[in-house]
Amino acid sequence: MAMKKRWVIPDIHGCVNTLKVLIEEKIKPARSDELYFLGDYIDRGPDARGVIDFIRFLQKDGYTVTPLKGNHEDFLVELYDAKIQSKNPWFLRFSDRKKKSWYAIGGKETLKSFGIHSLKEMPPEYIDWMRNLDYYVSLEQFILVHAGLNCKIDDPFTDTQSMLWLRDYEIIPEKTSNRKIIHGHVPVNLQFIDLSIKNNYYNFIDLDNGPYISGKEGFGNLVALELTKMEMVIQDSQDSQDSL
What we know:
This protein has a five-stranded mixed sheet with strand order 3-2-1-8-9, with helices on both faces. A four-stranded mixed sheet has the order 4-5-6-7. The chain has helices at 16-27, 48-60, 71-84, 89-104, 107-114, 124-131, 160-165, 190-198; strands at residues 6-9, 34-37, 64-67, 136-138, 142-145, 180-183, 204-206, 221-226, 231-236. By secondary structure, the chain is an alpha/beta fold. Helix 3 (71-84) runs antiparallel to helix 4. Helix 8 links the parallel strand 6 and strand 7. It is built from eight helices and nine strands. The protein starts with 5 loop residues before the first strand and ends in an 8-residue tail after the last strand. The chain has a single domain (6-70, 134-243), classed as Purple Acid Phosphatase, chain A, domain 2 (4-Layer Sandwich).
């Protein structure tokens, strides 16, 4: 009987063709395997809706899938809530500022993928799906999270904002039960990802290689890490650079 595999896949950012090739042609998961996604399914790339649809299809088709929340999902849900409440003048000003910030990080591409002009038109089932995503997963040897953990406080697992938004942080092994943190959020080059996987000196692995990034050496791929053998699979971008 084949050993169950555990795959971790970081920030996809609307690059649905890249995701499909990675899973269908390279990973080829069995239904007994586990697929963990580290958030940021939307924005920047051309087909945010397609990414969510594909992950939801895997969930409905009997695969063992655990999608975590990223800061982009959190931001969208917050902006959606502000839009719905925008009859209040304060919320209106708040949501307008937020909208400009969202557009700057790829929000227009997300709206386009849904064929809508305003977040108010977003199908509620997608908002509910993003709203209810988990923040982290604890495994025997690893903690999976989108961005990181705030080890400056007594219990890092109470600070969900840091799990979504942290960039630079110090890891205190006692507060993670000596488990290595695997995250995305900040794109790093392939050489560094490979080094952090193979070298036990690091108590974290950042898997984000920025699949939407073009023309920058060492970037622009979607990476998957298999946890039982600590093997990395790399898929270069299959999404049109014209639309990224």
